[in-house]
Amino acid sequence: MDRSATVVRKSEETDIAVKIDLDGHDNIHINTGVPFFDHILGHFARRAGFDLTIDVQCLNFVDPHHVVEDCGVIIGQAIGRALRDRREIRRNATAFVPVDDALVMAVVDINGRPWLSFDVPPGSSDGQLAVGYDLVEEFLRAITIRVNLNIHIRLIHGKNPHHCLEGIMKAAGQALGEAMTEKRQGLVGI
Description:
CATH topology: Ribosomal Protein S5, domain 2
Distance between the termini: 27 Å
Strand order of the largest sheet: 1-2-4-3
Helix content: 25-40%
Number of strands: 8
CATH architecture: 2-Layer Sandwich
Structural class: alpha/beta
Number of helices: 4
Number of domains: 1
Radius of gyration: 16 Å
Order of helices and strands: EEEHEHEEEHEH
């Protein structure tokens, strides 16, 4: 079954085209205009195991907020379309991901009800990263709403903002990717 989708979205701030294949082969091409977001979005897609092509044209760049949130909206729409009827997927998955000093837990349930729990201490970044915890939270919230799923993120520990943000995106991607895989036969009732 084909689990791919293409979505285009234009707002006052951005013009975005995304192509996604949930059964990917590590074909990832990201151009959002925000280099650090490109970096962590690449980790998200690789850990989820899907191909992702995204091109963002900034029409009215104020700051990275619109780019990051709009990417969450359109990627969420593409994932939702690519999942089709969702009957043959695992639905739930958990991932623990270490990135040097950071340890992050992500739990996903593709249950038809949007909910994001983002248990990360307040703070945005070390001042050098254009994307902080607040924008990653907005990105994940946009995905939960568009895909209609639960994501629970918990930063267990970590001090370096780069490592923490990378861990959050890797863990969220990994849990989402596992939740979207086909159900394993013969495991009912275990």
